[in-house]
């Protein structure tokens, strides 16, 4: 390894994996000490000339590493000509390492990518212009919205920006001079309440957190969105009432929610270009949710080709569907005037025997004339290596009830032209344990 990492080697990747350390050898302190000593030896013996990539992952070293170590390593490796810097500091290190702006300034003409994990970073307007910087990723970084603005004001070639778990950011503004910015990711920034986008070519916005106010100067530009609702309820409702004015030209939309106070009602307009819609209900807060109300979403997306739905987990001990339903299918709600000419693929995971879900499925079958594939999965899916995910006895009973409801109310309605698949509990992994 040390022969490879010779004095002028252009790519320095230092982690316990690349340095071949045995993760089960010695105490955690001894392993961390060995990693720090080996990185110190490598970087101290490197000339610093010709380094293009520095990837430094010292997250396991919180009880050994010091600010002095980090300063020495970065000053030795970060020189003019470096292209890519990715540094992961210990998450629980207190105080967080303060990354000096001057340390990066020497590389501002060459640097193309910065990725920082768990540190303090305080850019100022005097940081200098990073004319080649294309990608910035900040995770668990102490930085304010104003300080991030100072960095952005000194970049002209930025293509992708990610801020994740940066809890000092309350207001995120993307300036108009970022002509090349196409992807913005804002994840789990707990205090963030507003995003303003003036960059003219942003076409993808990926967000997770409580619903926030979003302003886009040119709402026609955005084509792809992911909106994961955590920390607060109502992401589906927020999308229903706000999204059409934010991004009417969407091609692909993923929505997830941990709690909804309202069922989906009629949207105020139509997503005329939306091709792919994925809605995920996460958690157990959806036992009374009316899945049939999602027909309004489908109705508002006339060009939709793929619809993926993940239902919420049920915490009820007794299935009520068969009590609510009569064998007579006239008890199933329908919207006779609804039709969809483009929907080809529908997949519903965590399928259960909820009356409203059966009604939604039947409505899709009857109204989607172009439907070619329908998958109903009553299981919890598959884990690594293709093995069945764990289901307890109650989960298996509910899944079997869902399969019974499919056979009773849905199967006979599926046209022969549709490839129809129902995933049932595995006989080996699930049924045998009843």
What does this 3D model show about the protein?
By secondary structure, the protein is an alpha/beta fold. Helix content is 22%, strand content 23%. It has 9 helices and 19 strands. It has helices at residues 28-44, 67-77, 101-105, 145-153, 235-246, 295-299, 321-324, 355-367, 393-410, and strands at residues 11-14, 53-57, 84-88, 98-99, 113-121, 135-142, 160-164, 171-174, 183-187, 194-197, 204-209, 213-216, 224-229, 252-257, 276-281, 306-310, 345-349, 373-377, 419-423. The strands form 2 sheets. It has a 16-stranded parallel beta sheet that branches. The chain has a 3-stranded parallel beta sheet with strand order 8-10-12. Strand 16, helix 7 (321-324) and strand 17 form a beta-alpha-beta unit. Helix 1 runs parallel beside helix 2. The longest helix has 18 residues, at 393-410. It is globular and about 75 Å long. The model is unreliable at 1-7 (pLDDT under 50).
How much of the sequence lies in strands comes to: 15-25%
| CA gyration radius, whole angstroms | 26 Å
**Mean pLDDT rating:** 86
SS elements, strand count = 19
Number of helices: 9
Distance between the termini: 53 Å
Net shape: globular
Task: Describe the sheet with the most strands.
Answer: 16 strands, parallel
Helix content: 10-25%
Global structural class: alpha/beta
Q: What is the chain-wise order of helices and strands? A: EHEHEEHEEHEEEEEEEHEEHEHEHEHE
Q: Would you identify the regions where 5 or more consecutive residues have pLDDT less than 50? A: 1-7
